[in-house]
């Protein structure tokens, strides 16, 4: 396979997985600090307290990126480094660290791609309901505006959210990610639509702060591969990829992308979730056009093989990863 000359090769990280220094320079607690320090929640009791120590070794990281001839670095900003309480006064020391990183990247000829939310919600906002509270979306917009204004002219590309399928699906449904909740489908969808609302408000805030900025999102989801080239299997794989039903809608691209691409909120088969869809507040519906996407990052980890069953409905082939194919489990940060 050949790649076009303008293809951009890069690397990507997440703040909690690499930075460490969780108690330095005024950083507040995140839900991952709380979760990882709860016995039994992570493998071997690992935490992000040190992680890859990128907070202290950032210059080495940039040197490695340059040595690999990469032209882009997608990293996330830790919301609780900028707003330790999730809102209120900006923490100058937090912004100063990202200043050093961004300036070093630009000097090395590497384009910074910033992710604003890679799952590390400030614990102070979680204490007020987290993504079950629509006010969290408004706090996110304030954070996004502050970051975009600060980095105007230096950062051109923003991912508002990384994989809401994980932060909501694994955080509020299965409970294997922070904050570790196992809620009913209706409550999970409440967290979902508040998260999408956060993207919309943040996208608008970024564009107001820096009209030259590009705004996108990086969702993940189930990818289904047809078992054969038979048109029936191809149709079955397509149907399964986009299928939405109570208990099996979170790990799909559809509820993230449809409302942001002008298609509105999709129907979800089954009463519990659909009742919440039908009750989404009007102010959130009105905000959807603000969330238009300048680009989309598709995080693809695996695929599930699907064929047409005897009744014509999609069925997952034996040995496939099943109806809830997911990316690997939560971070297992280690010091290096």
Explain this structure.
- The chain is α/β, with parallel strands linked by helices and 336 residues long.
- Helices cover 38% and strands 12% of the residues.
- The strands form two sheets. Strands 1-2-3-4-5-7 form a six-stranded parallel β-sheet. The protein has a three-stranded mixed β-sheet with strand order 6-8-9.
Question: Could you give a quick summary of the protein structure above?
Answer:
With 336 residues, this protein is an alpha/beta fold.
Q: What attributes characterize this protein structure?
A:
single chain, 336 residues, alpha/beta, six-stranded parallel β-sheet, three-stranded mixed β-sheet, 12% strand, globular, disordered C terminus
Give me the count of strands.
Answer: 9
Could you tell me the strand content as a percent range?
Answer: 5-15%
Distance between the termini: 35 Å
Radius of gyration, whole Å? 20 Å
- Largest sheet, described in full? 6 strands, parallel
Task: Please mark out the parts with pLDDT under 50 across 5 or more consecutive residues, or reply none.
Answer: 322-336
Helix/strand order: EHHHEHHEHHEHHEEHHHHEEE
Structural class: alpha/beta
Average of per-residue pLDDT values: 94
Helix content: 25-40%
Global outline: globular
Lateral arrangement of strands in the main beta sheet: 1-2-3-4-5-7
